Amino acid sequence: MEVSDFYYELPEELIAQDPLQNRSDSRLMVLNRKDGTITHRHFNEITEYLHPGDCLVINDTKVIPARLMGVKQGTGAGIEVLLLKNKGNNVWETLVKPGKKARPGAVISFGDGLLTGEVTDVVEDGNRLIRFTYEGIWEELLDRLGQMPLPPYITHELKDKNRYQTVYAEHEGSAAAPTAGLHFTEELLDKIRMQGVKIAKVTLHVGLGTFRPVKVQKIEDHHMHSEYYTISEETANIINETKASGGKIISVGTTSTRTLETAAGEDGRIKPCSGWTDIFIYPGYRFRVVDSLITNFHLPESTLLMLVSALYDREHILEAYRTAVAEKYRFFSFGDAMLID
């Protein structure tokens, strides 16, 4: 298949620039794969599609304020650094703009010298390895100096950092939010539990690869960037017991989906594990664990759009997207949601 097979027209004004005041007030498009219908609801009505014995799987990663604005020592040139992967020993793989000002040996100062970083190497895709030097506690310093790494299509300033976090965010490490989870409130999650629906947590730290454009013509030639994930024994047991008893696995977001499908054996059973995944799911893939998916509306020609097309099919997904445009749904990170049931 070709990348162009996943293109659709999107008016710029439908790209959501700000989160809604109430997370669960967003709209919900429900795609019923059995009868091919499209239903328009609101997200707080998601409970009508969850049943006792089902399992909702959420990604509890937490976004770090990974965007740092610094100056190059010696020249004073402005440099933007986005933290991608912690490589250990105060070394991070980063995306640096402009890259030509950040060759190996360059030293960048942040916060008037509270934090400095030396570029030590250039790696895949032009990313830089930077060794940081500082005094004090890294997390506190990052919270003081860093900004939330909002996607480039969001141009408005985010007034409340917590609105780019899920209410269940726990384990720090993401360069982007698992945005399907942004629609949930604590009250909605409590209501879901009261219905007899289990909630299982996985962790996948979202990297920049989520947003990188597919640069090859044939999607089979695309290589995903790796992201770190963890599945606990408790989560594995919940999911396996749900499958064995006939309940559905409803995955919240493409990140939860990629984590589950990475950890699944041929028999669909999950084992507790952790590691790096570069799984690329596109049409033709056979899902082993996930039965239904809650997701946002994704960029044209993106790997995320390819993943949702694998769970349903490309024609139905593109038709749903055309419907969403006609009905003026809000798109992308702060936008509305879709349930593929």
Please outline what is shown here.
This protein has 341 residues and is an alpha/beta fold. It is 18% helix and 28% strand.
Ends distance? 25 Å
Helix count equals 6
Give the uncertain stretches in residue-range form: none
Share of helix, binned: 10-25%
Q: How many domains, as an integer? A: 2
The coarse silhouette is: globular
- Fourth CATH level, the homologous superfamily of the largest domain: QueA-like
Number of strands: 17
CA gyration radius, whole angstroms: 20 Å
Topology:
Layout: E1 27-31, E2 38-42, E3 55-59, E4 61-63, E5 67-72, E6 78-88, E7 91-97, E8 107-110, E9 115-122, E10 128-134, H1 138-145, E11 171-174, H2 186-194, E12 198-204, E13 227-231, H3 233-244, E14 249-252, H4 253-263, E15 273-277, E16 292-296, H5 303-311, H6 314-326, E17 337-340
Parallel strand pairs: 1-17, 3-12, 3-14, 4-11, 14-16
Antiparallel strand pairs: 1-2, 5-6, 5-8, 6-7, 7-10, 8-9, 9-10, 12-13, 13-15, 16-17
Task: Tell me about this structure.
There is one protein chain. With 341 residues, the chain is α/β, with parallel strands linked by helices. It folds into 2 domains: 3-63 and 160-340, 3-Layer(aba) Sandwich (QueA-like); 67-145, Beta Barrel (Thrombin, subunit H), CATH 2.40.10. Helices cover 18% and strands 28% of the residues. It contains 6 helices and 17 strands. It has helices at 138-145, 186-194, 233-244, 253-263, 303-311, 314-326, and strands spanning 27-31, 38-42, 55-59, 61-63, 67-72, 78-88, 91-97, 107-110, 115-122, 128-134, 171-174, 198-204, 227-231, 249-252, 273-277, 292-296, 337-340. It has a 9-stranded mixed β-sheet.
